[in-house]
Amino acid sequence: MGLEVRPVASRRDLTTFIKLPWRLYRNEPNWVPPLISDRRRFLDRDKNPWFEHGEAEYFLAWRDGRAVGRITAQIDRLLNEFQDNRWGLFGFFECEDDQEAADALFAAAEQWLRERGRDRMVGPMSFTMNDENGVLVEGHELAPIILTDWTHRYYPGLFEGAGMIRAMDTLMWHLEIQGRDRVHPSIWRVAERVESKYGITVRPMRKKDINAEIDRFLEVYNEAWERNWGFSPLTETEVRHYAQTLKPILDEHWAFVAEKDGETVGAALSVPDYNQVFKTMNGRILPFGWLKFLRNRGKIDRVRVFALGVKREWQHTGVAARFYQLHFDSAEVTPQTYGEMGWILETNKSMNRAMEGMGGRVVRRYRLYERLLDPAARPSYPGAADASASEPAPQEPGAPASGPGSSEAT
């Protein structure tokens, strides 16, 4: 029968699309299975609010009647309007070590995007930079932290073999949140004067008031992150959807709001690394998944800095340093004593320097690729010879983490 790529056309096809990674990663101990029910809801065009401003097609590659790869092609109209671009996106890429199959998947996504007038295809993003994104190029020896992917070592070769070019790298930083002497003393000095000098108070988010807290987070998010490469603002519907998804794993020890005279000026949200629990569940809640969840959640020893942002006019006040200080306080009363901060854009020199000052080290690097579809389009990668004019300006430490699923403080 040979190789064929065709759209997902039935519930059975969608199940194959969702479950393909279980076969591809069956011999990879560091891969963490996602919850099948969560993936199904996320891909449901009637349930995921991203589809209010986006459209997508799902493709499967078949060889001799067996699924050997998958990909999505998508358009985010909100991204295009906000960034004033004609980007097309792709995501959810998984494939056997088979260049012919990878080429065919990329070709199917490209054709779908060309038909809709896109000038490039950028990814992988599932579905945006607010979600899991990138191909892992460094850090395969580590199990992935929550809201990140672990992808095969051979994937960069498949992408580059198909003519994809580097668009942007993102970094994940390991941070110990014990042993305050590892941190540059100036950070503690700055943190201590946030309230006395500027009148800014920082308090834990209230889980029982989650809707109002999410409103405060959205107020910060869409302002503080707006200059990020690939940023697409979240709608109120999307934020409330995220809130319901995250509420079961939200811990008030790790979520903070900064306020000045009733105005929200910053927000920080870290979540315990529930990947350490999901690893034991094999993607299923029933019949015994919840029991494993309850039994193992007390063993989680690290957190993921999911999002950390400060409005631009308040970035000079040290609010980010105060957020960092409170993470150390929380580590003294919870089982979590270390974590990861990310992703952070490689171009964000100020935030990466801040991570060094916190005693951090880069432990993972993810890469986003692109293929230019219009001869007039220029590469996104700041290191490209003809792309210097489009390089994002570095932002101050304590601006944002790069969004739900990404915690860059650009």
From TrEMBL:
Signal peptide: none annotated. One of its GO terms (molecular function) is acyltransferase activity, transferring groups other than amino-acyl groups. Keywords: Transferase. Gene3D superfamilies: 3.40.630.30. Residues 379-410 are annotated as: Disordered. The keyword Nucleotide-binding does not apply. The keyword GTP-binding does not apply. It comes from the Bacteria. Residues 200-384 form the N-acetyltransferase domain. InterPro entries: Acyl_CoA_acyltransferase, BcerS-like, GNAT_dom. PANTHER family: PROTEIN YGHO. This is GNAT superfamily N-acetyltransferase. It comes from Conexibacter arvalis. The lineage of its organism: Bacteria, Bacillati, Actinomycetota, Thermoleophilia, Solirubrobacterales.
